[in-house]
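Entry for the shared binder. Reason: the reviewer on the internal report wants the predicted structure included alongside the sequence.
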Amino acid sequence: MISNFRIGGGLMVLVSALLLVAGCGESVETGDLVIVERSLDLGGAETLETIIEMGVGKLMIGGGSGDLMDAEFVYNVDEWKPEVSYREADDHGTLTVKQPRGRRSSLGKNVRYEWDIQLNDKIPMDLDVELGAGNGHLDLGSLSLKDLRVTAGAGEVEVLLTGRPRVQDLVVQVGAGDVTVDLTGEWKDDLDADIKGGVGRLTVRLPMDVGVRVDAEKGLGKIDRGGLRKEGGAYVNEAYGSSDVTLEIDCAAGIGSIILETDGESDDSGVTI
């Protein structure tokens, strides 16, 4: 039986997400399409904190930059010109990319707002991404991340940690929309992950050869545990308890389904509860 608290929490997430989208509905004046390329030199920082804040739009983040950052910004609302700042102190850098605050519109047919950001793979960093309403494609497996936090109000969000991810602490929270978190990389360190979807489908892809333990909690919906087996109150894979590395994952959805997919399993191997 689902408690009133859990149902109420899911409904509050839905209401909050809808209010967010409604609040982004003010009309704005569009102009000529602007494409701006921006690069930042590495400088002398040995560690980095990166903060990326987009109110509404399409956000793509990946690695592969030979500098600190290479970015392309596309927009046709003059007052939405992205703000980029960087400072260094005591061998630590802070990079901030944000959409100016003020009037924001939903992305209608006449509005273009897109960021494509590549970050340096080698410099150790903590990354904090905030997306109000829109779509996010975050391909982050090549980055030297320690802490990763992704929050979104409403939209479709993909967080891909394939390749050789170095993340140790992961938080993903999305109010409304479909969320995909791909953890099928070659993990060398343990991971603590907290993944929450409010209203919509939450898909978590998991490796086979690294120990995985998932505590999954659903509100109104179902859990598809894929190739994982039930152990106590959690779901584990065959490598759990025997591999040197373990992924500990807390997973929750308010109104919608949780789909746990093991790397390499067929589409019809899931077990729904």
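Summary line for the report: Residues 45 and 91 are 4 Å apart (CA to CA).
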